[in-house]
């Protein structure tokens, strides 16, 4: 939910859809074997399928997208995908809301897995930032309800890793509404009020969605990362602890360094990444005991 009143992201066919990210080299699967796990990432408000997960070095300017540059070195038998959807709160002309984007994610993921011919065997772990977690919860609810179309996704999903997902809303949504009200005229279009209204603290739609998910939550391992640092200029975190966790008996809740934007960006020297890749390995039975490339 990185909200900048001074700029907005352009969403085009270049960053909308479900993208399979490349492995560290072209012969990766020949050396390490076919993938056993699909890791599917979903960005949040004002996010991007790559930039949300990319750390840029302040000294060299070099970008690192940990999903496909770092994670395979720890879990070599994975395939990484990232879902991009229109999530700008300014200059957003898309009519798609949470449910529509959840269905789009399911349809695209089903098609990708059918193309591989192994949809009945390969585990799925979702990785979500902010609003992306709400979309994933909605998607899994739909998948469990509409098993004739998405039952394979419902059953193969092993867990979700949440980064700063506002399960009970966030005060920043109200703050963003104020910013949008002042700035939207400059962009000549209407803001994405539906997303902002959904993310207000304890909004009815958000509470209904969360309650619907609780009925299936025990089927999935849940890891919730909680942002530690305040946003400069705002004086507070975006998603408070009470909203970033669902208070489920089997939920693993962990504080992670960084603000709402930087909490899911890691480079090669970032020690925070260790906790992230290890929780993904714990969730997927197929990845446990698999040797890392450094050990082979």
Q: Brief description of this entry?
A:
This is DUF676 domain-containing protein. The chain is of the alpha/beta class and 296 residues long. Helix content is 35%, strand content 17%.
Query: Considering the protein shown, what is the CATH homologous superfamily?
Result: Alpha/Beta hydrolase fold, catalytic domain
CATH secondary-structure class: Alpha Beta
Q: Name the structural class.
A: alpha/beta
Number of helices: 11
Main sheet record:
7 strands, mixed
* Amino- and carboxy-terminal Cα gap: 39 Å
Just name the CATH architecture. Answer: 3-Layer(aba) Sandwich
Overall shape: it is: globular
Radius of gyration: 18 Å
The number of distinct structural domains comes to 1
Uncertain segments are: 1-8, 184-189
In N-to-C order, the SSE pattern is EHEEEHHEHEHHEHHHEHEH
Strand content: 15-25%
Strand order of the largest sheet: 1-5-2-6-7-8-9
Mean of pLDDT: 85
> Total strand count, please?
9
CATH topology: Rossmann fold
GO cellular component, one term: mitochondrion
Protein name: DUF676 domain-containing protein
Domain DUF676: 39-172
Family: Belongs to the putative lipase ROG1 family.
């Amino acid at each position: 939910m990185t909200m900048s009143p001074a700029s907005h992201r352009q969403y085009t066919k270049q960053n909308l859809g479900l993208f399979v990210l490349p492995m560290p080299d072209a012969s990766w699967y020949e050396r390490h074997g076919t993938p056993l796990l699909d890791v599917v990432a979903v960005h949040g408000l004002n996010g991007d399928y790559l930039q949300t997960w990319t750390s840029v070095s302040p000294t060299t300017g070099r970008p690192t997208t940990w999903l496909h540059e770092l994670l395979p070195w720890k879990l070599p038998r994975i395939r990484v995908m990232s879902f991009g959807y229109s999530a700008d709160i300014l200059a957003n002309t898309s009519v798609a809301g949470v449910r529509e984007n959840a269905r789009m994610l399911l349809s695209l993921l089903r098609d990708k897995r059918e193309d591989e011919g192994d949809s009945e065997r390969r585990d799925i772990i979702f990785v979500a930032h902010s609003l992306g977690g709400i979309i994933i919860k909605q998607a899994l609810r739909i998948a469990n309800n509409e098993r004739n179309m998405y039952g394979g996704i419902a059953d193969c999903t092993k867990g979700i890793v949440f980064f700063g997902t506002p399960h009970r809303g966030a005060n920043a949504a109200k703050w963003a509404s104020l910013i949008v009200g002042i700035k939207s005229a400059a962009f000549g279009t209407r803001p994405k009020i539906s997303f902002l209204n959904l993310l207000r603290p304890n909004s009815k739609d958000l509470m209904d969605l969360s309650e619907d998910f609780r009925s299936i939550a025990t089927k999935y391992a849940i890891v919730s990362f909680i942002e530690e640092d305040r946003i400069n200029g705002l004086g507070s975190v975006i998603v408070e602890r009470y909203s970033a966790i669902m208070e489920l008996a089997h939920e693993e809740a962990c504080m992670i360094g960084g603000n709402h934007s930087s909490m899911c960006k890691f480079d090669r020297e970032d020690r925070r990444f260790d906790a992230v890749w290890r929780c993904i390995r714990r969730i997927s039975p197929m990845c446990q005991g698999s040797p890392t490339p450094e050990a082979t």
